[in-house]
Amino acid sequence: MGMGRGEGEGEGEGEGVNKEKSGGIGWGCSVLILMLLCLRKRKRTTPSSDPPHPYPYSVLRRATNSFSTRLGQGGFGPVFSGVLQGHPVAVKLMDSASLQGEREFHNELLFASRLHRSPLLVPPIGFSSDPKRRRFLLVYPLMPNGNLHDALLRRRIPHLTPWNNRFAIILDVARALRYLHSLHPPVIHSDVKPSNVLLDHSFSAKLADFGLARFKTHHDAAPLPHPDSESDAASDFDTQSQHSLDDAKGDYEEAREGVVEGGEAWQQEEEKKKKKKKKNKVDVENEEEEEEEEDEEEASVYGKRSVDSRLSGELRRARWNSYDSGKSGGVSSNPSTRGTVFYVAPEYGYSGEVSEKCDVYSFGVLLLVIVSGRRPLQMTVSEFQRANLVAWARQCGRRGKLLEVVDESVECLDKGQATLCVTVALMCLLKSSSRRPSMKEVLRMLTGEIPTPQLPLHNSHSPFKSRNRPT
Asked: What is the structure's pLDDT at 36?
């Protein structure tokens, strides 16, 4: 009996253990299923780890409060501020009628995954794509202090009055371009200008807007492709950059008209030089004098037009393209497929010949703008000799008066650094791309790692002194 009772108790205990095990397994399965459901839901609502993240249009509309706070306007479309997942953002909403805006949208996505790790750059962190409704949106982190164009040339904020703060921005942009050019393959930004330089909370400068950027190829002139399938572009943008680089050439053929005046001037300069070299075997000094005459003509043409307000249609468009309308929240776009007039290298503007040296030229113009606190074409300058910033800086270089270029409102000026900056800018602006320094060399000169070579210009009188001007 006792033995029987023990066996019964053992069986009862075994059944209890089995029930506990089965209950535990059931509970564990329930937890696992719940976790899988939560994870699945999270994947639907939470973007992947690496930007740019896809977002539904409705999410971005709510984030911007139905696009209520407008920051600015560019060629791509309007820019709005918002809050996304607790972070302030700037959202570009493409103009539905803009074909170039769609190209820029795809182009930004092509580069976003490759550039998001650099603190020197501001690629998009998110996007929304609906080709059927032509809704294309790009999301960027909002830069608290806007862009350099607005801060330096519009609001003229006090923070940019001390020389050290301007010089720090110059170095930041130089480092950003050096980084892009050091990638494999190198990335050519193609639209370096103040409105594409963003300022964070501490006024550190970051380079933005990769709508016109491209990878350097063996041909050096092939733009990035326009996707064959709009619907596939947003999901497959990471693989698009390696396909059909040459096929997109036709998309940019119209750009030959984009900077006609600068390009034709460059072509005429090259033809003049070739003819004179064949005819007279012009020596180096005569070439320099010829450049003086060309700069005089250039300054005269742009200057007179600015004074008389007789800008051609192309220059008038360039003026609006260069000065983005509205307050800038740190993001802007421009309509030209080859950058912005006055910042575009002559060989790029006319023939489409593209290399890192095109960015170097644009950086030279930007450098003069930061140092002088003036636009490349100053419409309000009474003396037309000084209206064209680049031509005027070249003449100051020839006269050995580089500090005349410096903004008079700058405080605590380091004359040595200022002279260095203008010198480096003029080297970046040499008309022959092969004579311009690389961005690596530019940065090393600015930081004093290597000496700055003497400018290939001699000190001579200003050509304006001998010009007969009407009284």
From this structure: 66
